[in-house]
Design brief:
The chain is mainly α. The chain contains 16 helices and two strands. It has a two-stranded parallel ribbon.
Length: 409
């Protein structure tokens, strides 16, 4: 007992050790997923398993010993930037042009869903005797918006609206939503494929490699060129993002990196015929981009889940769980009956549905992880990997901000 009494109240794990632990958890999740038929069948992302196990251990340490374990996760944001820069660098304008109409359709669907999400949150808040506007923190602010939107709007609710526990409500909702978002995308896509007899895709995956592919041939110069262009995209993203802020659009940094990758890929492809403008040049680094982006996304999601602090549910557990049960039911129903049909009722639509469940309840990274897990099992879905990042990584943040401001009035 004296040994437990000597434990510090908060145990801070430095960045390097946290990053190393994330790699170890990634391997643990991979091994568990390989041995679990259920996890493979429903395309549960491998990083979710390791991150979830870590979150459970951290929560148990708090409940049993009263020790809060806090990880330094600064490197997590850099991993996300690399991932979206790689998505941008693999985006050909011809593919973007083909995906124009699906982008508009998905944006419209997501906008409608944001309204439904907020109305549901406000309604349940009223039933619990809370200010209905507190329900917005359990709606699109914390779920579609993610942790960044939650922290951005929290002080506004506390100071101007007098909702003292607004930040706690938002953080708790985002935390529960993140766990659920990681687990519903794969089962939704698997159900749609079985229900409608859909065949998987063909061709090289946009992120990672197929699950049954034991090894991947790598070109040394291709990987090195991939790293070079990724760094250039991040540097250009640091220039583009402040320009959006000056224009009044508070878009996250990863959106600027996504657009930077698109600009570098397509402008150089139009102007420089000999080197980077040659399609063969980009084909040579495509596998390097796919593997680097897969590693970055997997470690990001692992670190996102291992950093979840379960004790934040204390005091708001009943309300948050009640709202989230209804939000999950709404998300699944809307995805199966509306999104799938409007997006074409094909394999690409099923992959988009896996991503829609991720963005509606978790984050942009969750949406991409769900889609990656499905395509690694069933095959490529190129249109889905163009449409989803544009909608959930760019346009939806603008729509969400406008809807939140309107509903607060």
């Amino acid at each position: 007992m004296e040994m437990f009494a000597a434990l510090p109240e908060t145990l801070n794990v430095p960045a390097f050790q946290s990053f190393t632990l994330a790699i170890l958890l990634f391997f643990i999740g991979q091994k568990v997923s390989q041995r679990s038929t259920l996890l493979r069948r429903y395309s549960i992302p491998e990083p979710v398993v390791g991150g979830f196990l870590c979150a459970c251990v951290v929560g148990a340490a708090y409940l049993a010993l009263g020790v809060r374990i806090a990880f330094d996760l600064d490197v997590r944001e850099m991993l996300l930037l690399y991932f979206f820069a790689a998505i941008g660098l693999k985006s050909d304008l011809r593919t973007l042009r083909d995906g124009g109409r699906p982008v508009l359709w998905l944006l419209g669907l997501a906008s409608v869903f944001i309204l439904l999400q907020n109305l549901l949150g406000m309604g349940v808040a009223g039933l619990f005797g809370l200010d209905p506007r507190a329900g917005l923190m359990t709606g699109s602010i914390s779920l579609t918006g993610g942790i960044g939107t939650t922290l951005a709007w929290g002080p506004e609710f506390v100071t101007r609206l007098g909702i003292s526990n607004a930040v706690e409500l938002g953080m708790a909702s985002n935390m529960v939503g993140l766990f659920v978002a990681c687990t519903i995308g794969g089962p939704v896509a698997s159900y749609l494929m079985r229900r409608h007899g859909l065949n998987g895709g063909v061709g090289t995956l946009d992120v990672g490699v197929k699950a049954e592919q034991a090894s991947v041939p790598l070109d040394y110069m291709g990987v090195l060129r991939a790293l070079l262009w990724l760094n250039l995209a991040l540097m250009l993203g640091e220039v583009i993002t402040p320009l959006f802020h000056q224009a009044g659009l508070q878009l996250p940094m990863f959106v600027g990196c996504l657009l930077s990758g698109m600009l570098l890929r397509n402008l150089l492809g139009r102007w420089m015929v000999g080197g980077p403008g040659n399609s063969q040049y980009w084909q040579g680094i495509r596998q390097g981009l796919a593997l680097i982006s897969d590693i970055c996304l997997g470690l990001f999601l692992t670190m996102a889940l291992m950093g979840v602090q379960l004790w934040m549910l204390n005091g708001v557990l009943g309300f948050v769980l009640s709202v989230l049960v209804l939000q999950v039911a709404l998300t699944v129903a809307f995805t199966l009956w509306v999104v799938f049909r409007c997006m074409g009722s094909d394999y690409e639509a099923a992959v988009i549905c896996a991503g829609f469940g991720g963005i509606a309840l978790g984050s942009t990274a969750t949406a991409m992880a769900n889609m990656t897990a499905v395509t690694q099992r069933h095959g490529a879905a190129h249109r889905a990997f163009i449409v989803m990042p544009l909608v959930c990584g760019f346009f939806i943040d603008i729509v969400n901000a406008l809807v939140i401001q309107w509903m607060l009035r």
